[in-house]
Structures are given as C-alpha cells and as structure tokens.
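Example complex used in Figure S2.
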Amino acid sequence: MSFLSFCQWLGQTPLSVWLREAAYPFPILIIIHVMSIALFGGVVVIGNLRVLGKTMRNVPVSQVIGQFRTWKWVAFAILLISGTLIAVSDPMEYRDNIMFWISLGVLLVAGLNAAIFRYGIYRSVAAWDEAAVAPASARRWAGVSLFLWIALIFAGRATAFF
Amino acid sequence: MLLAQIILQGLPEAIPVNPIARWTWVFPVVESIHICGFTLLVGTAAILDLRLLGLCFRQLSISQVAKNLSPWINMGILIQLITGAYLFSGDPREYVQIAAFRTKMLLLLLALIFHFTVIRKATAAAQDSASLAWRRPAAVVSLGLWVSVLLAGLWIGNL
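Predicted assembly (321 residues):
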C-alpha cells in the first residue's frame, strides 16, 4: 500500500471521520495538546535553565532534572498521542502540509539531541552536579535544546497556518 | 455590556500599516512567541504553586524556590503582555466584542492580582516556618487561574 492510499484509507476510518466532523473532539484535542505543551515545556525549560546556571543554582542538576522526570514523560506521551490524533483527523491535509513534516523533523532532532545529552555528557553528571554552572559541553546542549523546542512550537503553530 | 461599548467607541479601526493587519504570516509568528511565553510563564508559575503544595523541590524552602523562579515568571508575564497587546492591535474592535477575549482579560487580571498579592505573601521568607493552612488552597487557586487564562485564550482562537 502506498503512503497516499494509506492516508486515504486512514481518512475514511470511523475515528478520523469522527475527529474531523463532530463538533467537540477537535477543539478538545487542541486544548489537551496545548496544555501538554505548557506542562512539558515548563519542565524542559527549568532543566535547561538549571544546566545554564540561570536558576536553582544551589540545587544539584540531577535533582532539578530528576524532580519532574515522571511528569515530563507523561506530558510527552500526551503531547505525542494528541498530536497523532490531530494528524489522524485529516491525513490528506497534513500529508500535503510542508510545516507538518518540518515539525516532525524538528521533533526528531530535538529527541536525538536529548538522547545525546542523556547518554553522553549527563553520564558524568556526578562530577558537575553541584556546580552552579554546568561545563561548556552541557551548556551547549541546553542552549540547542531550548532553541529546538522553541523551533518546534513555531513549526507546530505554522502547521495550522498552512 | 456597557463598559465594552464605551471602550469600543474609543478604539481605532484596524490600522492598515500595522504589519499584523497587513501580512497574514505576522499573526502566527507573533502567536508562536505568545505560546513560548505562556509555556515559560505557566510552567514556572505552576512549579512555584506545586512547591507550595509540597509536590516538588522539597529540599528548598518555599521562599528560595520563589526567589529562583520569580525572574522567569516576571519575564514570562512581560513577554505575554507585549505579544498579547500586539496581537490585540491587529483588530481591537473585533476582539473587545468577543466574549472569550473579555473573559480572558478578566481572568488574566485576577491571576496577576492574585500572583502579586496572595502568592507573593505566601512565598515570602517570613512565611517559611508558618503553617501551610491557607497557603495550600492559595496555590490551588493560583494554578486554576493560570490554567483558565490559558483555556480562555484557546477559546478566542476557536471563535
């Protein structure tokens, strides 16, 4: 099955038709999506700012990041599920929407960046946990991370514009 | 609503030279900054409320968490007021007639007043050893206010 016929099939499933045509599901999806952005974004921002030495300097880095680990993953799961359902509501529309694919690309890069931090410099966190400002390599990661999540917000908003 | 009528009389028509009224792409760009701003504001304000409820950063005193977060909460408020006012400037006459917009402004006013009076007092150093009896419900009210401002904002977009 080609991707085009997959999108056509998906767009005709009862779930997709319901999400697209009923009055309430779509606005509720948007509300859930945006609330999870606030939750996820808030947690990510605090972690990044701590690594950059801009807040909570007297709390170990691992404690600031560890504090919200569960919430972060819960928010991220809600973000992904609600985002997927928004895409399912009109696959043919999003298939042709360049900003939708750019959003996915930015999300992928942001995820890779987070994984590189987690399994790279963060493994030595014990050595700089108490430092008010993390080493340059960790700060670089935090700056890139902030930039990518902001870019994702722009790309996500632009998806609705195009 | 009489007040809205009076405000309406004093408002200019949408100004054609205003970039946000002139080019369609300006609105989503400014709105994206507005979304980043509320993530910063609601995210950091919520963490302070959660600390009052004893749900995070328990190793720090409440006033220390407030001292760490306040600059970021204030920056979030500043970004939101500037970008929000600019979004509003695109078509002021239209916005004041939308119920969702008026609701949001009322909730925003309440949230700001509550934050700078009750929450500021609840997170002051002098309160650190005091009872949490009234401060926990205050945190719940604060959380509810910020979330309802956010919801009212989304409501504007859906009309």
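Residues 36 and 62 of chain A are 23 Å apart (CA to CA). Chain A has a mean pLDDT of 91.
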